[in-house]
Structure prediction request, 222 residues.
Amino acid sequence: GNSVTQMEGPVTLSEEAFLTINCTYTATGYPSLFWYVQYPGEGLQLLLKATKADDKGSNKGFEATYRKETTSFHLEKGSVQVSDSAVYFCALGGKLIFGQGTELSVKP
Amino acid sequence: GAGVSQSPRYKVAKRGQDVALRCDPISGHVSLFWYQQALGQGPEFLTYFQNEAQLDKSGLPSDRFFAERPEGSVSTLKIQRTQQEDSAVYLCASSIGGDYTEAFFGQGTRLTVV
Prediction:
C-alpha cells in the first residue's frame, strides 16, 4: 500500500543554517504530495504542495520538488529562522497518508 | 465558521465508556477526513466522507469505532467501550474535494482514557 517515510528528528539547527528534511514515498499512480507544518500549540496547516512529477512547491522560503525517479519530496530552506521551529509532516495525496513527522528546533 | 471546528477540545473517559467527538467542517467542503494521532507520531487515517457517503473506512481500528455524516456537513466519530489504547488526538479535516486540494485541519480532540 501507499506509505511515506521521513527522516527522524529532532533536527536542531542554528539560525540561518540550511535545512533539508528528507521524505520518500511508495505509491501506486502519481498522487499529489504535500508538506504540512504544526507550530507549537497550533493545528496542522498546509505549507506547500506539488501535484505532478517535476513540480516544485514553495512557500515562506521553503521548497520541495516532486521527484518521480527517486520517489522523493525533500523539504529545503536556505536560511532557517527561530520562528520555523515546528513539526513538519510529509503527506501523500488522496486520503492523505502522513509520515511520522520531523521536529525542527532552530536556535538563535 | 472560518475554519474546521472540533469539540470537545479535551475529553477524559473512563475505560468502557462511550464517547462522541464532533467535527464542523468548513461550509461547502465536500470531503471530510478523520485521523488519529498518537503522541510523537504522524496522523493515521481513519475514515473519509464525500458529502454524506462514507467512501473509505479502512483505517478504523476496530468495530468499536463508528463515524457518520448524515447530512453531508457535521460529522461525529463515536468510540464505544473505550480502551486505554484509544488515547490520542483525533483530528478532523475538510477539503473542497479532489486529490490535489488542500485539506484544512481542526485543532483536534485530545482523548484520554483512564
